[in-house]
């Protein structure tokens, strides 16, 4: 069995509804939150279908996915098709997309040092944004 790619996945009503729900919010959201939004809109999509579609959309580069401190995967629409990373506020959830040539070079060098090729990586940086930092002092 071969893995489907972005170009050969069949567009479905459920996938379109999930994409629309993601497009309405710039914030990272869990599968459960997206499922609740869809139900609130009167769209009937099972939670397992939401999870399955989010995983496929992530694999296809259509959504960004990061893990919360609790290990939960949260998703949002990609603002760009380019490879990027995120700096996420632990206080309010603000997420900023960033690129980093130094990180890219480091990942390639470390992988090559251990004989790895065709390297993929993700980098998640979290902290407190300026507004949350000002409120915590």
Briefly characterize the structure:
By secondary structure, this protein is of the alpha+beta class. Helix content is 39%, strand content 18%.
How would you summarize the topology of this molecule?
Elements: H1 13-23, E1 29-30, H2 31-40, H3 47-59, E2 63-67, E3 73-77, E4 85-89, E5 95-98, H4 101-113, E6 124-127, H5 130-136
Parallel strand pairs: 4-6
Antiparallel strand pairs: 1-3, 2-3, 4-5
Binding site for Zn(2+): 89, 92, 129, 132
InterPro entries: FUR, Fur_C, WH-like_DNA-bd_sf, WH_DNA-bd_sf
Subcellular location: Cytoplasm
Total number of beta strands: 6
- N-to-C terminal Cα separation, in Å? 55 Å
Q: How is the main sheet built?
A: 3 strands, antiparallel
Helix content: 25-40%
Describe the structure.
With 137 residues, the protein is α+β, with helices and mostly antiparallel strands. It has two domains: 1-78, Winged helix-like DNA-binding domain superfamily/Winged helix DNA-binding domain (Arc Repressor Mutant, subunit A); 82-137, Ferric-uptake regulator, C-terminal dimerisarion domain (Dna Ligase, domain 1, 2-Layer Sandwich), CATH 3.30.1490.190. It is 39% helix and 18% strand. A three-stranded antiparallel β-sheet has the order 1-3-2. Strands 5-4-6 form a three-stranded mixed β-sheet, with no helix packed on it. The relative contact order is 0.13. Zn(2+) binds at residues 89, 92, 129, 132.
